[in-house]
Amino acid sequence: EKKIKRIDRAKDKSRVREKDSERLKVEENVFDIPTLKILYTLSNKGIIKAMGGAISTGKEANVFYAEGPDKELAVKIYRIASSTFKAMDAYIMKDPRFTNIRNNKRDIIFAWTRKELQNLKRAKSAGVRVPEPVLAEKNILIMEFMGEKEIPYPLLKNTYLEGDEAKLIFDTVVEYMRLLYKKANLVHADLSEYNILIDPKDLTPIFIDMGQSVTLEHPNSQEFLYRDVQNILRFFSRYGIKDKPEELLKKIQAE
Ligand code: ADP
Ligand code: MN
Whole-angstrom Cα distance, residue 10 to residue 194? Predict the structure, then answer.
């Protein structure tokens, strides 16, 4: 049972807030004071109507369910006090879109969050199914919730596929990689069965987690693309798909 607690309510605002901040303080590593302040502001602006439970607690970020004014939302909150951000430097610093950010952890995380929003926008414009990005504010990314009635769609990893379903999904994944590459000028750079959701209604794959995605100008973009291709082939090989990495690369980079 998931109870949605109101962050903000028209009646008796301050009391609810106090109660809520007490609850949120418990998860101190997630909701530090600056993060709480942003959440309150977003709530006052009506962008978030209510915060829900955690969908995922990862190494660098936690994802929460939230109720928006007109649709369900996913709120991805990067942890400032996280020790694994060294790796982010390599992605951010070599990205021509982020040349003048200061070299400290907070700024790198904020730039990372903005980059994920931008990457999602570019992917969406290119015709790749991704969560619709809403906004990025400091370390908080708000996007469309991919799921129904508070239940997120399953990861590709946890989806049981039969018959020609795997081939159908594989073909769409490859087409999305091609669209990303040719139209969005991007390589996902962390693509695998862990970062693809499956819409159970029509079996469309949904690419997520694009913070580390890079433009083709990034010096390591080709290496990242090759790794993505290998991950996808490794996963789908269990369903009898035996394409060669070189064939797939050719398809993705085709004119
Ligand atoms: P991480 O960096 O922790 O891997 P992800 O962006 O992959 O962050 O999100 C972690 C998990 O949260 C995903 O595996 C997925 O289950 C869930 N999730 C992320 N974004 C959404 C979304 N927009 N809608 C529904 N669930 C999501
Ligand atoms: Mn992920």
Answer: 39
The reply to whether ligand 1 has any atom less than 6 angstroms from the CB of 216 is: no
Q: What CATH number was assigned to the domain covering residues 152-253?
A: 1.10.510.10
Which residue's CA is the closest to the ligand 1 atom numbered 6? 209
Q: Which residues contact 115 (CB under 8 A, 6 or more apart)?
A: 92, 95, 97, 98, 211, 213
- Planar angle of CA 114, 118, 124, nearest 5 degrees: 145
Top pLDDT among 4 and 36 is at 36
Ligand 1 close to Cβ of residue 152 (< 6 A) = yes
User: Confidence class of residue 225 from pLDDT cuts 50, 70 and 90?
Assistant: very high
CATH superfamily of 5-151: Phosphorylase Kinase; domain 1 (3.30.200.20)
Q: Catalytic residues, which ones?
A: 190, 209
Q: Which residues surround ligand 2, an ion (CB under 5 A)?
A: 195, 209
What is the largest distance, in Å, between two alpha-carbon atoms of the chain?
62
| ipTM topping 0.90 | yes
Measure the CA–CA gap between 151 and 233, rounded to whole angstroms: 28
